[in-house]
Amino acid sequence: METVLQSRSRTVVIGAGQPFCIIGERINPTGRKGFQAQLQAGDLSQVDVDVAEQPLADMLDVNVGDPLADEVGLMAQAIPLVQSLTEQPLCIDSSVIEALEAGLATYEGKALVNSVTGEDERLEAILPLVAKHGAAVIGLANDEDIPMEPERRLEIAKKIVSVAGDHGIPPEDVVIDPLAMPVGAEPRAVTLFLETVRLIRDELGVNMTCGASNTAFGLPGRPTLGAAFLAVSQSHGLTSAIMDARRAETVEAVRATDFLLGRDEWGARWIARHREKQAAAT
Predict the structure, then answer these.
(1) Mean pLDDT in the chain?
(2) Under a CB-based contact definition with an 8 Å cutoff, are residues 96 and 71 in contact?
(3) Does residue 243 contact residue 25 with C-beta atoms inside 8 Å?
(4) Which of 91, 137, 194, 258 would staple 113 via disulfide (CB 3.0–4.6 Å)?
């Protein structure tokens, strides 16, 4: 099953037989007081810097949410701005339905919407919007709370795929998030995540993504932990992740795993990247 996303000039395909899709997470004000202050002032100049820092990403996540900012107006400006700076397809990220609509209305191509949960109210509010704009959507495997049982997460994922189908959105355009949680707060977080990935892979067959940086939150050596987490998750069936695309260590672990799992035939991308680095060094 393949999820096809498009910008004005580039197509990205997420699928089990495809190279892992890296979705750059940097355009996001969470934990960034300077960026938050800029957004509150209606200033999007930081976006230029954030785009330039993520050339290794296949897609970019765009989040301009701040409680004291005009998120709807900012999203309507941010999407055309980012599309003027990069050919990468975009993931429009907001919990505010009006902001999602503003972003989708200005997007050129087929976007990925981040995100919808399994709550009936959210499904009925967001899925018609996704269908209207011919987008794909990330479905979080939680409803009123975050279930700690992989089987319950699978049930919610099945519900999201089913209700999406009722709105004319095919399974290939629903990318499920099995919920990556901080292993520093819950020792079972990664094993629960991997079991959820396995269940979704075997019983639904849809593509999956996650917020990969959540796993190592608050721990030392986050890039190394993130690289290990992504490699293991890829081997279990995860096909994309919203992650820190600025970290060469993490990105290279993902690309190495593509090669080792047979998703980079003859290591063509791996070798090409190595030659690019050699050329840059000399």
Answers:
(1) 96
(2) yes
(3) yes
(4) 137
DSSP string, 179-223: ----TTT-TTHHHHHHHHHHHHHHHT---B--BGGGTTTT-S-HH
Model confidence pLDDT, tens digit, residues 195-214: 999 999 999 999 999 999 99
What is the structure's pLDDT at 274? 87
* Amino acid, single-letter form, for residue 126: I
For residue 143, how many other CB atoms are within 10 A of its CB? Answer: 18
Q: Report residue 13's pLDDT band, with 50, 70 and 90 as the boundaries.
A: very high
Pairing of strands 11-15, 2-6: antiparallel
Rounded CA-CA distance 116/143 in Å is: 9
User: CA-CA distance, 73 to 213, in Å (whole number)?
Assistant: 28
Over residues 95-102, the mean pLDDT reads: 96
The β-bridge partners of 12 are 5
The span from the CA of 137 to the CA of 92, in Å, is 9
Q: How far apart are CA 254 and CA 231, in angstroms?
A: 6
Q: What is the pTM of this model?
A: 0.95
Check pLDDT > 90 for residue 276.
no
By the 10 Å C-beta count (0-12 exposed, 13-18 middle, 19+ buried), 9 is classed as exposed
Peptide linkage before 115 cis (omega within 30 of 0)? yes
Structure confidence by residue, pLDDT tens digits, 216-238: 999 999 999 999 999 999 999 99
Give backbone dihedrals phi and psi of 52, rounded to 5 degrees, phi first: -65, -25
Print burial letters for 44-79: b (CB count within 10 Å at least 16), e (below 16).
Answer: bebbeebbeebebbbbbbbbbbbeebebbebbbbbb
Residue 48, CB half-sphere, CA atoms under 13 Å: how many?
4
